[in-house]
Design a protein that fits this description.
By secondary structure, the chain is an all-alpha fold. Helix content is 58%, strand content 0%.
Amino acid sequence: MPRRELSLDCLPQELPANIFDKNATNDVDLSRMKHFLHTAMYIELTEKQRYCLCERYLKGRKVKDIAADLNIDATGVSRHIKRALAVLQKRSRYLM
């Protein structure tokens, strides 16, 4: 079976507003967080981590389906997601 090419096309230039706190009142902070997440996803994360996060959280796909795309087991996908979230959480501390 041929390997599928990974593509970052699924990650939009502007992240959807619904992944942020809808009750946020400070537009400056919200804009800053969107910019941070977009930048951090492209600079700090590996291509597989970005792909897994995008497919899981932006597209709502199941871990086992993502694993099939990447020809790895579901544990590997979960590991990519866990590490990506840890990196983003660590980097977000600098915003505080």
